[in-house]
Design brief:
845 residues, alpha+beta, eleven-stranded antiparallel beta sheet, ten-stranded antiparallel beta sheet, 14 helices, 15% helix, globular, Beta-lactam/transpept-like, Ig-like_fold
Length: 845
Amino acid sequence: MKLSSLIPLIIGGVLSQPVYSEIIFSDDFDSGLAQWDISGNVTTDSNYSLSGSSAYFKETGQLSKTIDLSGSLGVTVEYSLASRLLENSDYCYAEYSINGGVNFVTMSVLGNGQDNGNFYAHNQSIDDGNDHVIVRFRAQTGGADHCYVENVLIQGDSVPVILEPNIVVPDSVSFGSVIMGNGAERVLSVENTGQQPLSITTMSTLTGDFAIVTDTCSNSELPQSGSCDITVSYSPQSIGGHNATLSIQSNDPDTPQATIALLGNGIEEHGQGYIENYDPLNGSGQYSRTELTYEDLNAGTITQRVSTEAFAIPAQAAQPAHHFEGRITLNNPGSAGVGQFSEHKDTYRYTSNADDPRKHIPDFDYEFVQTGTHLVPVQRGILLNSHAYWEYILEPGRVWKEEGDNGKSRASIPFALMQKNSNCVHNGLMTFTYDDNTMSDVAYQIASETCLYYQFDMWGSVDATYIPSVISNSLEIKQAHQSYESSKIPSKPIQELAVDFPSANIEVANFGHASEVTPEHMTFFGVFAEGVHYTSGCDTRQGSHPYCERLRVPSYSTAKTTLAGTASMRLELLYPGYMDSQLTELIPQAASDPEGDWNDVTPNNAIDMATGNYRLSSGYLSDEYSTANDTGFFLVLDHAGKLDYSLSRYPRKAQPGTFFNYHTTDTYIATVAAQNFVRNERGATADVFADIIVTDIWKPLNVDLGTQDTGRTYDSESMPFGGYGLTYLRDDIVKITKFTSIDRGYINGQPMLDPAELEIAMFADPTSPPLDVRADSKYYSNSMWSKRKVLSGGCEDYVPYMSGYGGIQFVMLPNDVIYYYVSDNNEFVWDKALVEAGKLAAYCQ
């Protein structure tokens, strides 16, 4: 018997009868399982329940129920799900089907880490218009793993019959920011959801900045479920926000005059080369999608990992039908029961089987603007937040339209999570459907990283809210994005090397060779030769990443060169003598050292990591890889703590400038010295990274905006880490490495670094020999590494390179070829690539 209670509902149109909220089905399992179809290992249990008994199922056990929904709308399925003792491959599923069991949509799932016996409540809406729904709870576990369900409640409202016509229009339409003198158009749909014909008579006249372009609605009659369109244009004639109201007259008895708010923002053009419809699409929109479908994103919970192709823009993608400008908020992404997590490597045992904040993406509340078919985040760089372990880095994505998305547009956004106070980067993708006012849930998946010690997959979906708004500086954001895209070095797939150099007999496989870097740990690699960037793919555990050019990677210790060393050589050019000044004059805490260990030490000694202060000399990494260094320096959040350890840890044992011992702390000291010097010269708000690196060098090089940020201490000092904490795109790697090596520090004919110091850094000054690293023919000078190699042709020379923790190498070859790779299996070999690159141009002159 259905229980009902009268609830008044406000619905446009006249109802033929009252509307009742009804309990369609309920079961608390206290009376057993008689109402269910069961198979496999299913029984009841009184030990783990909210009260009385629960349904208990394991292995392949399942219970299902077919529910008649005829005569109901607004149907919801409520239940509480619990689990115990699950392992990585064990899951407890709650699902429903609206097509007779042909396909099931996951409502929620519990996995390893959500298995402490607690019940998680869930409420799932079922789309109107379905006569039946099958509700199913099933296990995918071993014999010692347990699933429980309690208090299943299905309820809905009795179907109202709207005898009269009922007009449905959007509340508002935003045109975003438009340059004065330009225009933008939006298509507004008008629908009739009543049973009687809707007669539309007239609509208001728009004046000023808004105008009606086409109108198929006026003086028309829409049958039940019929619709018509109005195209409205916005052409701002002045700077600032503009608004208007479009009124539509009809025979809807409840809303005889429907209104639509029109919003736009007029802006002034501040640059050249801007394209309004950037990177347009001309596909048909036909695409046979089997993963992350419209139904998955709008009526289900994503519980399985999918191919990265599900996030890619299809070959036949059509131009998006909607304009996105505003804020996306993910609603409680860190809640227990949201998302899935599978660990592949955890050297430091960060996570156990229990739920953990590391297993969830952080809160998300960020703005985006759309330029043509690109969706650009307003907030770029390393986005600090309240999460204990993760920081977002957001990348521009793509937007398009597919036929199967019910008229909505679709977006895909690459993103990364960077470990707080560290430099590990885990690469992910997000996707959702949207229109001018709403969006679906957001599906996300992380299936690759550049991180030696912590590797995992994280995936799921989370409820999201879209708040359309006008972004005041949207034009500048769009122009900056388009400027970067047009500045990228011309690129080709790595296989084209053999085509472009036909007489060189290139064996492309020798770049990124499997004997030198384990393929599953290779993030990407590339070769720069004669003005072209030859690029590899970027594989993940779920297929090839669809946006390799937006795959963000960590710098780790390449920052010692690109930040600390480069800043020192820049300051030497601007302020001659800086590199040979005294650290005790630049850092008061060094001058206060009671043992005087920092007397006669210079910034040059610090970037050489030859301060003369060290503890162990058995190997050049002995001090660096100590537990004391982790706890005393790397894990410390504040500047005072990092600097105190850096200055006090190592006693004087050698003459400064004579003995190399690898210390990230030395690079931190060099960064602090440069920061203090810049502030003394330029004022208290000056910053060595923002002013000396970004403004002077990286902006002229058109380095990506997301790269123009660095890890810093978590205090008011906000000191750049100096020796790590940067991130790059692959185009940035080539631009920065080319500037340092091939261009010898010149931009537009002007030297940006001290030429003499850069020659020393490139091992090209025979009067300034490098420091012997005492391992594998390695040397170090001015923050740069080199290996002494016998090259093709018989000559012997230094080969400079930048190096980063875990397996990051940027190699600057003597024939003006650059070879780089980013990996995370502690592999630092490039002998095959060295030989192969020698075929592109002679090493020995």
